[in-house]
Amino acid sequence: MNDAHEMDSVADRRKFIGFVILLLMCAGVVRFLLAEEYTGFISDQGLFVQWMESVREYGLGGAFAANGNINYPPLFLWVMGLYGDLLHALGISTYAGAISFKFLLILIDLAAVVLAVWLTAGISNYNWRSFILVLFALNPALMTDSAVWGQVDMLHSMLMLLAMMWLSNRPFMSGVIFALALLTKFQAITVLPVIGIWLLIVLVKERNFRPLLMWTIGFITPWMAALSYFGAAGSLGIMISQAYTDAVGFYISVTMNAMNIWFYIIGIAPGTNDTEILAAGVTMRNFGFGLLFISVIGICLYVYRSREESTAVLLKASAALCLAFFMLPTEIHERYSIPALVFTVFVLLKDKRWVLPAGLLTLTVMMNLIIVLDNNVTAGTGVWIAIVNVFVLIWMHRLLWMGAGSGIAESLPSLPALTNEAGEL
Q1: Where do the TM regions start and end (predicted)?
Q2: Pairing label, strands 277-279, 255-256
Q3: Cα–Cα distance between 56 and 81 in angstroms, integer?
Q4: How confident is the model at residue 407 (pLDDT cuts 50, 70, 90)?
């Protein structure tokens, strides 16, 4: 009997390995076809190619001083520099909108799929694991962002995800990876409140200082290396200002094509200056930050009160916080929704009830990107996306409180059951 069971397990594993290989091939082919068919957002890609050449010519340490248009942190520039050196050695020229540049983004996507296979290894149900991998690997929104648009939001999103998944059991590596996420894009700081409250809870409730200590050491290590490198190159101040401080508040519209609450939902046109007074002397910018602050407090309370296991708590809180960051403040770009979508897909590792948010976000993120690429951003084409996004944000917060074990959760109306009562796999 045991022999037969073992044979079945071996056969299942072989089938799954075959499925993964086929999925990787499909993910690569579809991305190549999309990249070949659509040039994407030439402005972004043109800057990336320009930055790549600056890194090749002046080195990573001198690129920021030589090119004042660089406004990304150094990690992606370093990756592009390596890629540019490889293409140069092969005699291949890089052009915006062409496969020669987008191939790098496809490689990053495929590396993310391989990482997803590893991160889902704890799921014993091969069918459910396969569903999650397909939803991630062939997600039309994620493919639109990279293979079509030509952006690299997958890189910092996966680093953010890995930092949260390792926080409870590998705090040192979590700190290292989170530092790398910040060195890739400043948006990664979105999940810092979740990290902070979790480490604080462990410190206070369990009187265990080791996770905080190890995470801090891990976080400092890449930063010390980066600061030392740019300090020796004489470009530390320039790098910090261009990649971080000057990049904040550069755009003053209430929304930069992000279909959130500022996209006609509250009766304000997207191009409105966010420094204008909304009411009672409060600017729209400050009101947006206030809404985000309230959401952060609520999500931190969920982390504090939750009865769920650590990884589930961290993934759900991060998904909700990333979506709140996209939905509530002003000056948000359409692509800032990508981390929220990535986290939501991986919440499915722990809770099947998040299928609806994952599906709806896939739809709204994809349509938001397509409408911007088509230069067709109007109330008629986009307000429905903003409304659905509001619904998803509310739904997410409802799901959080269902797992918080508080009286608030029990007082809220019930949702349709997609799994068992606990929502576990």
Answers
A1: 16-34, 75-96, 103-128, 148-167, 176-201, 213-236, 248-267, 287-304, 311-328, 354-373, 379-396
A2: unpaired
A3: 6
A4: very low
